[in-house]
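Researcher: Go.
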Amino acid sequence: MLSDSPFRYVNFFIFFKIRRLIIEKKATHLILEHPYYGWLGILLKMLCRIKLVVHSHNIEGNRWKGLGKWWWRILWFYEKWTHRWADYNFFIQDEDKNYAITHFGLKAASCLTVHFGTEISSSPDLEMHVNASRMIHLQLGIPENKPLLLFNGAFGYAPNRKALENLIYQVNPILQNSGLDYEILICGLDIPERYLSVSFPSVHILGFVENLEKYLTGCQVFLNPVTEGGGIKTKLVEALAYNLNAVSSENGAIGIDPGLCNGKLMICENNDWEKFSEGIIQSLTVKERINSIFFDHFYWVNIAKKAADFLMDN
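Model: Structure:
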């Protein structure tokens, strides 16, 4: 029902469609992903007498402020208004939840951290890793003794484009001078033409791939040089779930406790590319597997149960 039109957030006709569904399904709760449809959720709450849940993926006003948008403060107040009308507020990390309690004036009892999750309940075994790695090496003509370093993302998003720039122009030259023999694989949609038309040493720009799971299973290290944007970086959760060692900037690791990762997540200060590169070299020596504690925290089934229990108990 929700179109991709630039005017979708002011489409008042959607109210009647959703109200009809609420009546037909005898729905008791309505969940908004992000606060942008706040006016719609509040109107439906008032006229249909249902509970309103706002699931925030970031503090959106602050995220747009960080991206330099002049109108961020307008969104911040709208976001605050939406959250204050909600019966329950879900956040994907504790930092956002605590910020909203303090700055939006929310009641702590109505707030819950609902992390982003992974759909797999355990990581691929060693045989699956070896087979996927061999397949990638063969497909790309890379000698099997070279470790594979992976970065993926949606490059229509400015922070991911900046991360790609960091990787190619900052991290890769340092690695070239380190003596490490490696290959970086870059996957994702909307990679700018300026990267596609130039050859970079030890870098394979693959663009969109049909089977990302093959690369998550077959690579050794996941790179996350994201220094802008807010919220938990979902691609990092997925990479750790697939048992990749990971090296991330501080911003890129927001919302992920390294203590849950069994030594597989190394975090460096934003823009310290020397330390980031050292972390990559060090991560290649880590042999531990991601453990059950990680999946207790980030497996979607466990997350959904936690959220459902919270709604039922309140």
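Model: The domain at 8-114 is CATH 3.40.50.2000 (Rossmann fold).
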